[in-house]
UniProtKB/TrEMBL annotation:
Keywords: Glycosyltransferase, Signal, Transferase. GO terms for molecular function: UDP-glycosyltransferase activity. This is Glycosyltransferase family 1 protein. It comes from Mollisia scopiformis. It holds the Pfam family UDPGT. InterPro entries: UDP-glycosyltransferase (IPR050271), UDP_glucos_trans (IPR002213). Residues 1-22 form the signal peptide. It comes from the Eukaryota.
Length: 520
């Protein structure tokens, strides 16, 4: 579905909000160990298909295949993910001949991504300014982010997951918290489960921080404010947080859907108050060192560090592109899997690239797709650079993002601030320039500056960008001066810390423990 796109805001909103609203972290511990149904050594993953949501699940299931080949592994998602899952099994079999393939189970209904498409979301109308300017459109969209599915679709998926749970009878289920119908089914059956989401720690656990500091210290979601929030912005930060919470509590458009689901046997459909529960493991690719300072984190949280997919090395995925990468330090411009460019945005980047190539020895790889028709003339300024092969425009990159960064030839990753883009660059230890477009992307831009591992590329013009702002950003990261060296070194050191945390292997280890507990 070219051009029809979605975004993944819902993922962070739903998961984060459950904790905004739930006070369960302070509830007393239950004294008795719980027992759960399920076959020993059997694991089921349940995720959406969109890469932004599924990648942490695919990466972790891959690590389980390689490290714990005796476990029986199942993966249920919408049919589109089947190819990815079989490729993952095939790659794992090369690394450990003892592994058995993941058994894939296609679900009925429409994915989260498709459902958002169905209610009319396009990438172009997802783009919004930060702070007070953007809050109205964010709140207006909340209901759809929370539950994009139609009621009948939600129910059909819920029932399909119930059926699969009976059939597979897993001792542990790993689930994305945005996947409401799946989470409802797991909880209806009282299955043991682990939450695995791509979000960062603040998104999920800010409400647990002492002194209600979510209101005045941590930048409100989509605010774009720095950490700690400066005095003059505290009132606005307070207002944004309240308004955001209200938009989640007040969802008249969902009332009818929820009533239908209740009438059909789901006791508490999509109960955002209870997504977080202290009895169930919460796996995060967040890492305290890669986040604003967090004072309180729950004891059932495991911070695994960046969880990204391991695939064949770049040279195997696309030998020609890999050889090109090795010619010079490369600036990678890739604003996520779905973002395209209007003429103005493309033109501004062309000007920046022109200056950059004229003044340095780097080369540029730009994943570029047009939004609507416009003339190729916007590239006339850099036609020589394209001919010389110092600027490459690609509609699609044949090398997976992490494998690309792992070549060691990427000098800086320019991205839109998506969680996975952020964590891949953190994990590999390279600087980043963020051009945020909506909601949580503003947070990642703020983080990158706060951590000293990169630069916000569009401080004034976001969600647009200008060549002058972006030229400044490139200079700060690439000119070889003091700041550039400091950013490079800080990113490299954070990469070391992140790799020690274990990422997908740590998540796999935790899941394997739960898989082996048996029913006693
Ligand atoms: C961003 O650019 C588009 C045109 O490309 C323009 O319509 C829009 O008003 C700009 N937004 C801001 C916040 O400047
Ligand atoms: C080189 O960079 C400077 C500013 O950083 C700019 O003024 C100049 O135009 C650039 N050179 C070219 C050929 O673009
Ligand atoms: C589950 O399997 C593990 C080995 O994989 C074994 O140690 C454990 O005793 C089993 N539990 C039950 C209840 O059978």
């Amino acid at each position: 579905m070219p051009g029809r796109s979605i975004y993944v805001i819902g993922a962070l909103l739903v998961a984060g909000l459950s904790i905004f609203l739930s006070r369960s972290p302070t509830a007393p511990d239950s004294a008795q160990p719980k027992t759960f149904p399920g076959r020993n050594n059997t694991v089921l993953f349940l995720s959406d298909t969109h890469a932004g949501l599924a990648n942490v699940h695919v990466a972790t299931s891959h690590a389980i295949l390689v490290e714990y080949p005796d476990l029986e592994l199942h993966y249920a998602s919408f049919p589109k993910l089947e190819k990815t899952i079989s490729e993952t099994s095939a790659f794992a079999a090369q690394q450990n001949t003892a592994t058995k393939a993941i058994q894939f189970h296609p679900l009925v209904g429409r994915s989260y991504a498709q459902s958002l498409d169905d209610v009319g979301f396009y990438i172009a109308n997802a783009i919004q300014p930060s702070g007070l300017e953007g809050i109205a459109s964010l709140c207006n969209n909340m209901q759809d982010f929370l539950m994009p599915w139609t009621a009948t679709d939600y129910l059909a998926i819920y029932k399909d997951v119930l059926r699969l749970l009976d059939e597979i009878d897993p001792i542990i289920v790993v689930v994305d918290p945005i996947f409401g119908p799946a989470l409802d089914a797991i909880r209806t059956q009282g299955r043991n489960h682990a939450i695995l989401s791509p979000n960062n720690l603040k998104d999920n656990f800010v409400s647990m921080q002492p002194w209600a500091s979510m209101f005045w210290k941590y930048p409100a979601i989509s605010s774009g404010y720095p950490y700690p929030v400066p005095w003059r912005l505290i009132p606005a930060n307070f207002y944004l947080t309240i308004r955001f919470i209200y938009s989640v509590l007040h969802t008249p458009r969902l009332a009818e859907k929820k009533a239908f689901l209740k009438a059909n046997g789901i006791a508490k459909p999509l109960d955002v108050f209870t997504i977080y529960q202290k009895d169930y493991l919460w796996l995060s690719q967040g890492l305290p060192e890669a986040e604003f300072p967090m004072v309180t984190l729950p004891s059932n949280l495991v911070t695994c560090g960046p969880i990204f997919r391991s695939t064949a090395p770049a040279e195997q995925q696309d030998p020609e592109l890999a050889a090109w990468l090795s010619r010079a330090p490369t600036v990678l411009i890739n604003l996520g899997s779905k973002v395209d460019y209007d003429e103005n945005g493309a033109g501004e980047l062309v000007k920046v690239i022109k200056t950059l190539l004229a003044n340095s020895t780097v080369q540029v790889l730009w994943k570029f797709n047009k939004r609507g028709p416009f003339s190729q003339d916007v590239f006339s300024e850099v036609s020589d650079e394209i001919k010389e092969g110092r600027l490459r425009l690609e509609k699609w990159l044949n090398i997976d993002p992490a494998a690309m960064l792992e070549t060691g030839h990427i000098a800086v990753s320019v991205h839109h601030g998506g969680a996975n883009c952020f964590f891949e660059a953190v994990g590999v230890g390279i600087p980043q320039i963020v051009l945020p477009l909506w909601v949580d992307l503003y947070d990642y831009a703020t983080r990158v500056e706060y951590l000293g591992i990169g630069v916000l590329g569009s401080p004034v013009s976001a969600p647009n960008w200008t060549s002058s702002e972006l030229t400044t950003a490139f200079t700060r990261v690439l000119d070889g001066g003091q700041e550039a060296l400091r950013i490079k070194e800080t990113a490299r050191r954070l990469g070391e810390v992140a790799r020690k945390a274990g990422g997908r292997f740590r998540a796999a280890e935790e899941i394997s423990k739960l898989a082996r507990m048996g029913s006693g």
